[in-house]
Amino acid sequence: MLNKSIEQTLLRPDATEKDYERLFEEARKHKFFGVCIHPAYIKQAKRALRGSGVKIVTVIGFPFGANAGGVKAYETAMAVGDGADEIDMVMNISAMKDKKYSYILDEFKKVKKACRTKPLKVIIETDLLTQDEIVEACKLCIKGKVNFVKTSTGYVKDGKGATVDNIRLIAQILEGHRPKIKASGGIRDKKTAAAMIEAGASRIGTSAGPVIMSSK
After folding, report:
1. CATH code where residue 25 lies
2. Phi then psi dihedrals of residue 59, to 5 deg
3. pLDDT tens digits, 180-190
4. What is the rounded CA–CA span in Å between residue 162 and residue 66?
5. DSSP state of 52
């Protein structure tokens, strides 16, 4: 059931409360796995989705990942306290480019601890990484015992977002290890979503969930 893999997403900076209300209604209607929203709207989501079974996913260090690790951990702890069910954190892309692997791993561990028992997804932003850097990022996610590797924020100008080739590469690196894959970025129809699942993703992040569910 594809709907149970979808995290219906609303991360536009100009989204209004009415936009969020519509998002929550759509998530209830289609019984999506979850909604992915900014931390400021967690409490509203918790009220709107009570009893629905729809999970509340929020983003940390979004969209550029350049916040200090301690700030990300604090933001995570606050989000969990407000009622977030899952955390999607943006990796420090510059640190990856500079091969500061110890820094990145330390950040993962701090945020993972702040998550308590809640799943942590790490957004590695595949559009900004080489293939070798994607491999290294996945290896760090394994070492950091994160729960998911997520492809994209959707904020890279002219970026491709999730691609089948990158999902296959990530799946190859993660095979036999804890992290699963969340494909996100540019997924707007059922055919693309299904291709991501077939390539190895178990979650789909999209702002087009209702369109996907109504398309052939």
Report:
1. 3.20.20.70
2. -105, 145
3. 999 999 999 99
4. 21
5. T
**Average pLDDT score, the chain:** 97
Each residue of 6-38: pLDDT tens digit? Answer: 999 999 999 999 999 999 999 999 999 999 999
Ordered DSSP codes for 54-90: -EEEEEESTTT--S-HHHHHHHHHHHHHHT-SEEEEE
Q: How many structural domains are present in the chain?
A: 1
Annotated catalytic sites, by residue?
A: 88, 150, 182
pTM of the model: 0.97
Domain housing 11: 2-214
DSSP reduced 3-state for 26: helix
Count Cα neighbours of 10 within 13 Å in the Cβ-side half-sphere.
23
Q: Interhelix angle for 69-82 vs 101-114, to 10°?
A: 20
